[in-house]
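Onboarding guide, step 5: your first structure request.
Type a short instruction followed by the sequence, for example:

Predict the 3D structure of this protein.
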Amino acid sequence: EIAKIKGDASRGKMATVICQTCHQIGKMGFDFGPTLNGFGKTQTREVLLQAIIDPSADISHGYDATELITKDGITIHGIIIAEGDPVIIKSMAGQTQMVPKKRIKSKKKMGRSLMFSADMLGLTPQVLADIVAYLQSDM
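The system replies with structure tokens like these:
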């Protein structure tokens, strides 16, 4: 049903501020999730909507989420960049942390995307249509 809603690219551009917390769009945003430059031009509306509505349905290669729990009880969700000592993990907004192996109590794959779903972000069907219209535009 959402794919049938006419989106407005100019409103979508404004709405993508929320996406820029983790994604680069143009020269804006953080290098955490996959860049969205050009992505919309290569995908159908349905694929784009699915990626926003249910981001865990298809996680891009190299963006598997990991949960680290330190011995002092700190939980870190992110993407492992290096498995050495220290373990380097990148989290939302591009925050990179180095955690010495001796501080790690547990480390496990999360089996879901780190991206919040459209419902969790409070995105309405119209806002979703607007974001997709922007991503499919010439930006």
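Each response can be followed by summary notes, for example: The radius of gyration is 17 Å.
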